[in-house]
Target: NAD-dependent epimerase/dehydratase family protein
Amino acid sequence: MKVLLTGGAGFIGTHVHHQLVAEGHDVVVFDSFRPDVHARRPDPRPGLIIGDVRDADAVTQAMDGIDTVVHLAAKVGLGVHLDDIDDYVSSNSLGTAVLLKSLGNVHNLVYASSMVVYGEGRYDCDDHGQVAPGPRRTEDLAQGRFEPPCPYCGAPLRPDLVTEDAAMDPRNAYAASKLNGEQLAAAWARETGGRVTALRFHNVYGPGMPRNTPYAGVAAIFRSALERGETPRVFEDGRQRRDFVHVRDVAAAVTLSAAALPHRPPFTAYNVGSGTVTTIGEVAAELARAYGGQPPVITGEYRLGDVRHITASSDRLKNELGWKPAYDLQTGIKDLLGQDRW
Ligand code: UD1
Model:
């Protein structure tokens, strides 16, 4: 394949680049080196285009000779301030739209999506079956009531794994922009006969994770605290559930999906998680243990944009494309704590 890799200089992109090259593909990295992520901008060189996906001319030129596009370029994170809302829409929704209209004769697209499109994960009530909890209420969170109750009877719910056909319920600006990108890509595929695979990444961690930015994932935040000799601060009661998937397993999923595109339907979405449910408290404890640092503290703090539990089944990706994650959390955490290396 000759691949244009947008966001190829970022955390996930660097690993995807490495994996594609290792498998013998030609890769052109297209990255804006946005200053809120990258401290420095390198000089352009063969195989590297410094450009913004919102620049239609630059993207159109970059398509020369390309047969597959992997679109990772995005503003990531939770949507820390409402002030960011237009930047999410511009970087992610508009960025994807401009990329799509500039694809020309390229028919194969992998789109980096996220578990955030689902909002809260799957929940079951003993009496009411599968239910969708409402938005989290400040008064509940402030009083330490973190578990969402059944919207009909108020009973405790059992969290479970979401599958790709679950209802979409984006709960912050980032989530809305990522879902919008999926929808735009699906519209492109319908109109052009192209094919898109949307990969809904779970909590990605591993070497090269961004540090010390408000947009950093929790594993990097905990690692930074330990490196400063501080205690990792676990929000809520630490029992919120996630799935931490190693960045090299994610890179393998991207590569596999890209190679399979010529034989795929117009639009497919796959969850990409390790398959192991972990609580944030467990991740903090494992990181602290592996680092030999202070044990974590459970603070009861909360962030309004956070969901309580989100964990997904990645069986579809395993069954249809033969993807198999290689890292368990313990091995992955050792890797995260080691030297940053590829
Ligand atoms: C993360 C990603 C999001 C991605 C999604 C995929 C980030 C910032 N968010 O969202 O881009 O699409 O996974 O599922 O990378 N927490 C603490 N202490 C802290 C910081 C956070 O306990 O210092 C808790 C949060 O309250 C939350 C959990 O850790 O319950 C996870 O937070 P975070 O790493 O931001 O990830 P998600 O919100 O799951």
User: Anything to note?
Assistant: Residues 48 and 92 are 21 Å apart (CA to CA). The first strand starts at residue 2 and ends at 6.
